[in-house]
Amino acid sequence: MRRWGSKQAAAGASWREEERVVVGETGGGRRGRGRGSERRGHASLTAKPVRSAAAAAAAAGMGDSGGSVVSVDVERISFGGKEHHIQTNHGSVSVAIYGDHDKPALITYPDIALNHMSCFQGLLFCPEAASLLLHNFCIYHISPPGHELGAAPILRSTPVASVDDLADQIADVLDFFGLDSVMCLGVTAGAYILTLFATKYRERVLGLILVSPLCKAPSWSEWFYNKVMSNLLYYYGMCNVVKDILLQRYFGKGVRGGSTEPESDIVQACRSFLDQRQCMNVWRFIQTINERKDLTENLKQLQCRTLIFVGENSQFHAEAVHMTAKLDRRYSALVEVQACGSVVTEEQPHAMLIPMEYFLMGYGLYRPSQINCSPRSPLNPFCISPELLSPESMGVKLKPIKTRVNLKA
């Protein structure tokens, strides 16, 4: 099992203003996959059917660390990953895994009505980003309850999960796979859940990469739109009005089209994807997010570094700016992406590459030098061309980054 080395996990490196380079901190290691968590005891298996020999082998390797029961159902999905259905203390959750299990873990969480196929595919299909992330991480895509491909409707008698329940689900998932400290990547509602997870389980989060994040309780306008969507979903299903509201939430006007401009391919694909959603499962997640609490007072207590992206035209731009202002400025940075909506991972994934690459340098993580590089990316961290240090040339605006001070000897 690969662990975070001292170079990756050591505390006290700094932000380098002149190069916009993020160089990092925080500690933590990963347990082996067969080990349970001393903090939380749920890693035993039930007799729920396992559909492949590989799944059976994986199940046999999981340790039993105590009282509660976790079951897994594994099957291959279309892009070569494996999808695990894990029964946690707060209901079933789907986790799709890509990459080498011996590498450090990156967990993702999508926005309302999306899953990893519709929220992170654009980023992972960007060759430079894929080489950066898959070279360094095993990626664990966690879906909100009932948002995975082919999900069945959640029983109406099942209580609607709270945001705290969803954060605790993540802890259960990490315990099941024997993961200790992880990197987190979330979009909007998913960014909120991961931020809440980081405030509740600080020692388990190495870093946060948040895209158009939420951190406050819903504004009146957001609460109203969510209520409208909830009522329409409940009575009419995934109708065109609901899809239009969601697409406005996800994307900027430039790709959504209009009376004279057709919708872009990405918006058409997302519209088609929304047709496949289980309406009542989406309704449940909206109910959960609409009852969220304000995390502002907890942000200063975060012990990890945070990189925030937000589209300039995102409905949640002001919230991302607010969150950045409340975070410790020594540990955080804001990247504004011009002419983009909320889901930067799909609309302009290339704009995330350079900031992410510099962010991960602080953990001793680089992209493999043998991969052919794009002019957009500093593939070799030791040979950075001056023109690559101007994010504005990519349509990216970086907020000023203050020099970070060493906190530990």
Automatic annotation (TrEMBL):
Q: What is this protein called?
A: Uncharacterized protein
Task: Specify the domain of life of the species encoding this protein.
Answer: Eukaryota
- Family of this protein: Belongs to the NDRG family.
Query: What sections of the protein cross the membrane?
Result: none
- Taken from the record, one Pfam family name reads Ndr
Q: Where is this region: Disordered?
A: 1-48
Q: Which InterPro entries match?
A: AB_hydrolase_fold, NDRG
Q: What is the lineage of its organism?
A: Eukaryota, Viridiplantae, Streptophyta, Embryophyta, Tracheophyta
Supply the source organism for this entry: Miscanthus lutarioriparius
